[in-house]
Write a structure and sequence with these properties.
Blueprint: E1 15-20, H1 26-29, E2 37-41, E3 58-60, H2 66-76, E4 84-88, H3 90-102, H4 113-130, E5 136-149, E6 155-161, H5 165-174, E7 177-183, E8 190-193, E9 203-204, E10 211-213, H6 224-239
Parallel strand pairs: 1-5, 1-7, 2-3, 2-4, 4-5
Antiparallel strand pairs: 5-6, 7-8, 7-9, 8-10
Helix pairs in contact: 4-5
Amino acid sequence: MPAFKWSENRKPNYRWLVYGIAGVGKTTLSKYLKGKSYLLSLDKSFERVRFWQGNDDIWVLDPDQPIEDLNDFYDFFDPSQYDNLVVDNISSLQKLFFVEKAKGTKTGLANKISDYNEWNTYLIRFIASVFKWNINILVTAWEAKYQITDPSGQEFTQYGPDIRDNPRDYLMGSCDVVARMIQKPQSGERGLIMQGSIDTYAKNRLDERKGSKAEDFFKFEKLDLEKAVDKVKENAKEKQ
């Protein structure tokens, strides 16, 4: 890989991971993205989302051969034609992967230990490859509860994305924002938790917000990094 140069850096792109219970509005959240979006649907939840109805910028994963179909998508998709890619939802892909792998066993129902290692490697490779694209990416996942033990030995329950540990940690570490989406039962208002706590995994390295309403989630001030890149490019033009 050649040495990094600020003057040759591409425009900054952003990576968001949003998780929550089924039906909380994760797919609908994508309507607030700025620019032209493409949807990689891994569970067909878009069919009840008005924003995506009538939109042909959608790839629907084949549940009978998910890995082969996902590889076809990777070869087909042209990120230069879009501003955003929505990967919805990665937890469903995980379940379909293990269902497909189980078909090759004697009962057709059980998974081998090697299947779990293969999944970890596959998802990490997929995320690493897709995240190299010059495009904003929103990834969604279902919500799961995990038992966490702190250094003192105390155990507590923490909410996080429903993905196996190794690829989950890689994905969360590669994203600028990890947020838990929730809905107020009284008003129905949807919002996102963007600051981590003892019971919720979240992070936000784009701005200082600890949370936001759904419609404001993708609104953040221009990053210092983005300003720095613009300044370096302007200086390079002046020298030419």
